[in-house]
Amino acid sequence: MKRIIFLIVISLVLFTSPGRAAILSVCNLCGHTSITAAIEKAAPGDTVLVKKGIYKEGNIILNKPLVLIGEGFPVVDGENDSEIFTISADNVVIAGFRIQNVGTSYTVDRAGINVIRSKGVVIRNNRLINTFFGVYLQKSSDCIVEGNIMEGQAVEEMSSGNAIHLWYCKNIEVKNNTVKKHRDGIYLEFVDNSLVENNISEGNIRYGLHFMFSNHDDYIGNTFRNNGAGVAVMFSRFITMDDNLFDHNWGTTAYGLLLKEIYDGEISNNRFEKNTTAIYGESATRMKIHNNTFNQNGWALRLLGSCMDNTITANNFLNNTFDVTTNSIRNYNDYTGNYWNEYTGYDLDKDGIGDVPHHPVKLFSYVVTRTESSIILLRSLFIDILNFAEKVTPVFTPATLVDEKPLMKPVL
Amino acid sequence: MIKIFKYSFFDLMRSRWSLIYFLFFAITAAALLYLSNDVSRAIISLMNIIIILCPLIGTMFGVMYYYNSREFVELLLAQPIKRRSIFLGQYLGLTVSLLLSFVAGMGLPFIFYGILASPELSNFLVLLLTGGLLTFTFVALAFLIAVKNENKIKGFGFAIVVWLFMAVLYDGLFLLSLFIFEDYPLDKFSLAMTVLNPIDLSRILIMLQLDISALLGYTGAVFNKFFGTSLGFIISLACALLWIVVPTISMVRVARRKDF
C-alpha cells in the first residue's frame, strides 16, 4: 500500500513538472491572434507570450493558472468601457503589458487587473494608464504587485478609482510601484500581514496610501509627494511605518500622515518635508514616534486630546511654523528627548541634554486650535509677544506637555 | 512746493540717518538671503521686520524732522509761500528720502541675488509696495501729530502710542474679539478688521502671496477669495490710500489754521 502511494506521488510530481508547460505566442502572424483565444487553448501552467501590438478584446478572463508575458509592452486597450484582466485562478503571472483605458463607472469597480479569490498571483512590470482602478485584489492572499507604473487621470474623488486597491487580503507584497493621479495611490481595507515597500505615490487627490481596518502591516521606504494627504491610517493596529519620505503634501486641507483610531503602531526614521500638517492624530494610542525628522512643515505634530500613551522621542523638529499643537489642557503623551531647533536653553554639564525643559506648544497654536479664525494673526508682533510671555510662565498651554530632556544637537 | 520738496529731500539725503537706514536694510536683507539661501523664507523674515520697522521709523523720523525743522518752517512762513506747499513739500521730502533708502537697501541685495530673473519677483514687489505704503502712512500720521502738538514730549509720546496701537494693541483687541464672539461667523468681521489697519493689511497681503498662506486654512481661503476679486483689491487699495490721504489732508488743514 505504501509503495503504491509513493508511486502515485512520484508520477504526479513527474507529470506536472514545469518542463511540460507549453508556450503559446500571440501576435498578428502567430498561432493565436487574440489573447482570449490563447488563454482558451492553454492548459493550466502554460505560458502565453504576447508580442508587441494593440489588443482590443474587452474583458479578458483568466480562470486557470497561466503565465502571461508581454514582449515590448503590448497594448491592451479597454476602449474606455470594460474591465481588462479578470483573474480568478491561483498562481497567475501577468508581466510586461501596457494596460489602458478602462471606463469610469459609478456602479462597478472596474480595474486594469482584477484579482478575485486567488492565491500566489504576481503582477509585475506593467504600465497601467488611465485604468479606473489599477490593480484590484479582493479576498486574495500571498500575491505580489511589483514594479508597475500606474497613471490615472483623476480629477475628483467621486469619479476616480484607486491605483492599487486591496480588499480582504493577506500576505500581499506591494513593491517598487509608481502610482500617480488616482483617488488613493494604494488602498488597503481589511488587509493583514502585508508589506508596502519602496513605492512612489504622487499627485493623488485623496491619499497616497490609505489603511482601513488593516492590522500587522508594514510600509517601508516609500515616497509620498503632493497628495491630498500623504498617508491615512484609520482603524488599524500594529502598523509599522519606517523610512518613508512625506514630501510637500501642501494645501489648506493637506496632511503628511493622518492617524485616526490607530493603536500600537510605530513611526520611525521618516522624513516629513514641507507638509501643511506633518502628523495629524485623532484617537491615536500607544504609538511609538521616534527618529523622525520634521522639516519646514506648517504643523509638525497635531495630536488632539483624544491621543493617549504615545511616546515621542529622538525626533528632530526643524523650522516648523508650529512644532506641537493640541486642543487639550491635559497631556497624556510622552515627549522626552527630542531635538527642537527653537529650544533656547543651555547645557552646562555638556552631556548633550538641555538643562532647562522645553515647552513645544506655543500659546498661539493653542489659541488657533480653539478659535480657528485667529490664525489670521499669524506672524503679528502681538502674537510673538504673547508667545514669549507664555513661554516664560505657561498658563494656558498644557504644563505637562514638556520635553524634560531636550537634545542640544539633532539626532542623525 | 517742488522747491521745498527738493530742498528737504537733498537735505535729508545728505544726513547720516538716511545712510544708516539704507545700510540697515541692506545688511539685514543680505544677511537673511545669505543665511537662509531661500528667497521665500527671506521674504517672510523681512516682512516681519518691515511691518514693524517701516511704521516705527516713519513715525519717529516724521516727528523728529518736524520739530527740528521748526525754525526753517517759521522762516518759510514769513515768505509769500502757500502753507500747503511748505508742509506738503516737507512731508514728501522726508517720505521720499526714507523710501529711497528703503528701496535701495532692500533692492540691492535682492538684485545681486538675482531676484529679477526669479519667480519670486512679484512677491518681492509686494513687499516693497507695502513697505512704501506703510512709510507714507506713518510719516503723514507723525506730521499730523507733530503739527497738532506744540509740546515735543507730548508729540513724541502720542506718536509712539499711535504706533504701538497699530502694531501691537490692535491685534490684541482683534484676538480678544475673535475669542468673545467665537460662536458667530467671523469671516467678514476679520476681513474688515484686517483691511482697516494698514499694518495688518500689509501683513496679510504679503502672506497670501507666499506658500505660507496654506496654513491659514479656511480663513485664508476666505481672504484669498476676497483679495482675488477686483472688488476686494479695490477696497483694500482704497483703504491703504485713505490711510495716506486722510492724515495728509488733515495735516495740511491743521497747519493752515495754526497760529505759529
From TrEMBL, chain A:
InterPro entries according to UniProt: Carb-bd_sugar_hydrolysis-dom, NosD_copper_fam, NosD_dom, Para_beta_helix_rpt-2, PbH1, Pectin_lyas_fold, Pectin_lyase_fold/virulence, SCF-Subunits/Alg-Epimerases
Pathway the protein contributes to: Protein modification; protein ubiquitination
Record domain Carbohydrate-binding/sugar hydrolysis: where: 50-189
Annotated signal sequence range: 1-21
Keyword Isomerase in record: no
Pfam families: NosD
Origin superkingdom: Bacteria
Keyword Isomerase: no
Assigned keywords, A-Z: Repeat, Signal, Ubl conjugation pathway
Protein name: Nitrous oxide reductase maturation protein NosD
Organism: Fulvivirga imtechensis AK7
UniProtKB/TrEMBL annotation, chain B:
Chain ranges passing through the membrane: 20-36, 42-67, 88-112, 124-146, 158-181, 201-223, 230-252
Keyword Transmembrane: yes
Alphabetical keyword list: Membrane, Transmembrane, Transmembrane helix
Protein name as annotated: Nitrous oxide reductase maturation transmembrane protein NosY
Organism: Fulvivirga imtechensis AK7
